[in-house]
Design goal:
With about 250 residues, this protein is mostly helical. A two-stranded antiparallel ribbon has the order 1-2. A hairpin with a 2-residue loop joins β1 and β2. α3 packs parallel to α6. The longest helix has about 30 residues.
């Protein structure tokens, strides 16, 4: 209790908490986009449930990983060397997650471009199986993003209570933003393709990071923000043309 009181009275702890919450929110954007796109493939009645399960699982995973933070730190220690590149468990998880994200985004883009390509495992006609498949895929990416999130948290502060508060705050904000984001993406088809492009970029970045080619996340998010800004201008232009057409 004294430790918590001392921590609460330390201005540096509050600064670390604010920085960590902001970082967790930025890292959570990737996860949230993935959850929104996948859940929108389900029948409308099942979407909110899939999102709640996916985000709830992200919270449980991150808190569980925080309870084993000493072990998580060891995940960054090299396990073996491949082509003169040392790989740790974290690297292998990032590579596997990146490959999965690239594969999934590519499939989703193919589905959007050619929706009649053939039978799909997420066909809304089999709602029960679709929910199970969506939740399973969300859980896989939750694990990847959670490990990356916890490793980042450990690098920013040594105080476990700060990490827990930051993770809980970030996931609760994700929960609040999930439904509005999903509705916005569903209402704007071009945003879906842009978001899938983001996922391809993020997946490629995870693979590169796993192989030791670290790309500063600031560059990635700056590119994503610029693309979103340009798409926002396109949406505003389309809205003005539609309004002008309706008034004629």
């Amino acid at each position: 209790m004294e430790y918590l009181m001392a921590l609460a009275a330390d201005p540096a702890a509050w600064i670390a908490l604010a920085a960590l919450v902001a970082m967790e929110l930025v890292l959570g954007i990737d996860n949230l986009i993935f959850i929104a796109i996948l859940s929108n493939r389900l029948p409308e009645a099942d979407r909110a449930q899939a999102r709640r399960i996916g985000i709830g699982a992200a919270l449980i995973l991150r808190l569980a990983l925080l309870s084993t933070v000493a072990y998580i730190v060891k995940l960054t220690e090299p396990v073996f060397t491949l082509f003169d590149q040392p790989l740790s468990w974290r690297d292998m998880i990032l590579i596997a997650g990146g490959l999965f994200l690239v594969w999934k985004a590519t499939r989703e883009i193919h589905h959007r471009v050619d929706p009649e390509a053939g039978p799909d495992a997420l066909n809304p006609a089999i709602a029960a199986a679709g929910v199970a498949v969506v939740v399973g895929q969300i859980l896989v990416l939750d694990l990847v993003f959670s490990i990356d999130s916890i490793v980042t948290a450990v690098g920013m502060t040594e105080h476990l209570p700060i990490m827990v508060i930051a993770v809980v705050a970030a996931v609760l904000m994700m929960l609040l933003a999930a439904n509005p984001l999903s509705i916005f993406i569903e209402a704007n088809p071009t945003i879906v393709m842009l978001a899938l492009g983001f996922l391809l970029l993020i997946g490629t970045t995870l693979i590169a990071d796993g192989f030791g080619a670290h790309v500063p996340k600031g560059y990635i998010y700056a590119a994503m923000a610029f693309s979103a800004f340009v798409e926002g201008l396109n949406m505003a232009a389309r809205r003005r043309r539609n309004n002008a057409a309706q008034t004629e």
